[in-house]
Amino acid sequence: MTGQKLRGQLWQLSVKQEVYGVTRLEEAWALDLLAAFAPPANEGPNAQLSALPGEVDYLKTLRRMRALSTPLAAFGLRAAVWLLAWAPLWLDGRWLTSSRLQLSERCGLLRRLLAHKSFAVRELSLLLKLVASMALLGAPTVRARSGYDNVEPRVRAESGMRRKLPVLTEESNAADGGETRQTRHSVAP
Amino acid sequence: MKRPLEDSADYVIVGTGAGGATAARVLSATGASVIMVEEGPSLAPHERSRGLLDAMGESMRDLATVTTSSPAPLPLLLGRCVGGSTAINSGIIWRLPEAVRAAWASMHGMHELLEPAALERVFGTLETELEVSEVSDDVLGGNGLLMKVASDALGLPGRAMRRNAKRCVGNARCLQGCPEGARQSMDSSYIPRALHQGARLHALCRASRVVLDGTRATCVQGETLDPVTRAVTGRFEMHARRAVIVAASAIYTPLLLWRSGLRRGVGDDYQAHPGAAVVGRFDRQVGMGFGATQAYEVPLPERGVKLESIALPPELLATRLPGAGEEWQRDLRRLDYFAQFCAVVRMGAHGSVRPGLWGGPKVRYEPLPDDLRRLKESVALLVRMMFAAGAVEVYPGVASVPERMTHPEQAELIVADHVRRNDFHLMASHHFATAKVGLDPAHSALSPELQVRGVSGLYVMDASALPTNLGVNPQHTIMAVAWRAAERLANMQRPSLRAA
Ligand SMILES: Cc1cc2nc3c(=O)[nH]c(=O)nc-3n(C[C@H](O)[C@H](O)[C@H](O)COP(=O)(O)OP(=O)(O)OC[C@H]3O[C@@H](n4cnc5c(N)ncnc54)[C@H](O)[C@@H]3O)c2cc1C
Ligand code: SF4
To answer: Domain check: are B276 and B299 in the same one?
Structure first.
C-alpha cells in the first residue's frame, strides 16, 4: 500500500469515528427529543397511539439510520441533535437544553422548529422527525394502532370495482409539442 | 496479500439496473460470455426485509441521503442492489416521446440507434417480456381512485398507468422491492434470464476503475464488499475480451469514468425530473396501504409536468404529516384516511457530477426560475385536485403557506412571488445525461454508438448516455437504448465471436 493510500484510509477512518461515535450525552438529548414528537398519553384519544414503555427503540433506529447514511448525513443527524437540544438557548435565550424542559414544552418547541423560517433548521428538525417516525411506525404494535393496514373490505371493493377507465388506444400524448405513443396491447372489457 | 477475485468474459458489465441488465440479456442471448458486476447485494423476493428501514438499507443507496450540494440539498434516490433502481421503482412504463426521439436523432446523432421501426420492435419486445399492462381496476387502490375522481372532476387527461407488473396484488410496497416478484424489475426478469443464458453475476463487487491497455479497455478493477457491514473484504479484476460496458447510473457512471482518467465531457450536464408531493386528509377511509404503489397519472406534457398518485409506507407518510405532539398523533391514529399525489417536473436546469469527499459524488444542481414557476403551478394544481377528490384538509408541504389548507382557493398562495425554492421539499429519482451521446466531441463523452470517445471497447449503456431528460418515466427508454446499443455491438462482433 502506498503512503498516500494509507493516509487516505486513516483519514477516512478518523472521519468515520468522529461521525459515528455519538456520546452518551448526545444520545440522552436525542432520546428526549425523539420521544417528544409523540409523547405518551395516559388517557385521552392519543393513548391509542403513543408508545408504551419499551415498545419503541428510538436510539436503535437513530444508530441504524446514521450507519446506513452517507457520512455527511450521519453528521447532519448529529448536528440536528445539537441544534434541537440547545434550541431553548438560541431560540429563546434560556440557558438550558431541551431535555430540561417539561415534555409538553419540548413538544411545543419541536412544533416551532419544524415551522421555522430557516430552511436548515426546518430540515434538521424534519430529519429527527423522520427518525421518530421510523422508530414509531417501525414497531408492529404501533403500526397496527395507526390503522394504515386496516383497509376495510368495503374500501377495497370500492377502489377495486370495475370502473370505466379511459382506454389507452393508439393514443397520442403531445409531449414537448410532439407525440408519445402508448400502444395498448390488451383491451378492457 | 490476498489474491484478487478474477474472472474473464467477452463482456464485463458494471451495474445491473435498467441499462446494465438489458445489455446482459441481449449480449448473453448471442452466445457471448458475460460478467455482471454489481456493488449491491442480490436479494430474492422472499429474502427482502419486511421492515422499511431494513429494506431500504439493503436496497437503496445510503438510505436516500445522497443529495445535491446546494444550500437546499435535494435528495437523489437510487437503488443499490442487483436490479439497481428498477428493484425499488414503481414499474411505470412510458415509451420515449416522439418529439424527444426526433430531437435526439437529429441533434445528437442517434438516428441509427433510434430508427423508428427498430425502436418499435424493441419497445414491443420489452413490453411482452416484462409483462407490461395497464393497472387493473382491482389494484387501482383508494389513492389511485381518488386521483381519477379528481382528474375527472377537473377535466384533466388522467388515466390508469401502464406498469411492468401484470400480476401486481396491490400491496403498495414497491419501494421496498416487490415481495411477490410480480413487478418485472431487472432482478426478477432480465438478470435471471441472462444467468440462464450463461452470464455470471458478481454481487457485492464495487468497481473502482476501468483499466486501459493503451486506448483499449481491457479490465475492471474494484473491491469486494462484506454483505453486512459493506466494508472492503478484498479486490477483484474482471477481464473483458471484447468490451467493458459501464451502467452504474447517471450519478455513479461519471465517477467511475472520472476515476479511470476519462474526463472529457464526463459529468458535465446532469439533468433531472425533480418532484414534490401533496397529502390530503379525507373524512372516510382511503386505504393507502392497498393498491399498486403508483396507479394513476395525469400527463401534462405541454407544461413539462406529470402528476402521479403515489402511496407511501406508513413511516414516510407519518413524516409528511405536519406538526408534533397532540396534533401529529391525531393524524397518526388515522393513517388510513390520507392520500398522496405528486408532481414530477421536466426541469430545464443543468448541473454537474464530480467525485466528492469519501468516495461519494458531488452533485451541483439548482432549478431555474422557470422550473420553480412550473413546480409552483403543479403543486397548486395538486392541492385543487385533492379538494376536488373530496379532501377535508390538504397539506401542501410548502413552508411559507399554511401547513393545513381547508379551501381550494388557498392553492393560489403557492404561486405567490414570496414562495421560494427552499420552501419546497424536492426529491429526484430520474437522473440523466452525465456521460451523454452527441455529435460534438468537445461536449459529449460518447459517440452516437454509446462508445466512450477515444477508447475502444468501452461503452456506457445507462441513463447517463441519454442526451437530455425526457419528461416521462425513463426506465423503458433506458432499456430500449441499451438494447439497441448492445444489439449493435453484438452484430459488429458476431463474426469474430463465431470464430472464437
Ligand atoms: C424510487 C424510484 C422510483 C422510480 N420509479 C420509476 C418508475 O416507476 N418508472 C420509471 O420509468 N422509472 C422509475 N425510476 C427511475 C428508474 O428506475 C431509473 O431511471 C433507472 O433504473 C436507471 O437505470 P440505470 O441503468 O441508469 O441505473 P440504475 O438502475 O440505478 O442501476 C445502476 C446500478 O449500478 C450499480 N453501481 C453503481 N456504481 C457501481 C460500481 N462502482 N460498481 C458496481 N456497481 C455499481 C448500482 O448499485 C445499481 O445497481 C424510479 C427510480 C427510483 C429511485
Ligand atoms: S404494489 Fe406490491 S404487488 Fe404490486 S408491484 Fe408493487 S410491491 Fe409488487
So the answer is: yes
Contact with chain A for residue B227, Cβ under 8 A: no
Backbone phi and psi for residue B60, each to the nearest 5 degrees, phi listed first: -110, 140
Say whether both B244 and B284 belong to one domain. no
Tell me if B362 is assigned to some domain. Answer: no
| Helices A71-85 and A58-68, axial angle in degrees (round to 10) | 140
pLDDT at A152 over 90: no
Q: Is residue B358 part of a domain?
A: no
Buried residues in B136-145 as b, exposed as e (16+ CB within 10 A): bbbbbbbbbb
Residue that the C-alpha cell 448526545 belongs to: A26
Q: Based on the domain organization, do B324 and B472 belong to the same domain? A: no
Q: Are B254 and B394 within one domain?
A: no
Give the model's pLDDT for residue A61: 97
CATH number of the domain enclosing B476: 3.50.50.60
Task: Tell me whether residues B144 and A175 touch, CB distance under 8 A.
Answer: no
More confident residue, A114 or A11: A114
Which residues, given as ranges, of chain B have pLDDT below 70? 1, 494-500
- To the nearest whole Å, the CA of A24 is away from the closest chain B CA by 23
Same domain, B420 and B442: no
**pLDDT digits over A66-75, tens only?**
999 999 999 9
Instruction: Give CB contacts under 8 A, 24+ apart, made by A24-29.
Output: A26/A78, A26/A81, A26/A82, A26/A85, A27/A59, A27/A62, A28/A99, A29/A81, A29/A82, A29/A84, A29/A85, A29/A97, A29/A98, A29/A99
Residue range of the domain that includes B402: 137-163+271-349+368-425
What distance in angstroms lies between residue B140's CA and the mean position of ligand 2's atoms? 11
B94 in contact with chain A, both atoms CB, cutoff 8 A: yes
Q: Which helix (H) or strand (E) holds B151?
A: helix B141-153
pLDDT of residue B498: 45
B260 and B320 share one domain? no
Interface test with B, best of A34, A48, A180 (most B CBs within 10 A): A180
Domain total of chain B: 2
- CATH number for the domain that contains residue B312: 3.30.410
Q: What is the pLDDT of residue B303?
A: 95
B462 CA → ligand 1 middle, Å:
9
Is position B215 within any domain? yes
What's the pLDDT score for residue B359?
Answer: 80
Section A17-46 average pLDDT: 82
Residue B69 lies in a domain: no
| Dist. CA A127–CA A121, nearest whole Å | 10
DSSP B206-238: EEEEEEEETTEEEEEEEEEE-TTT--EEEEEEE
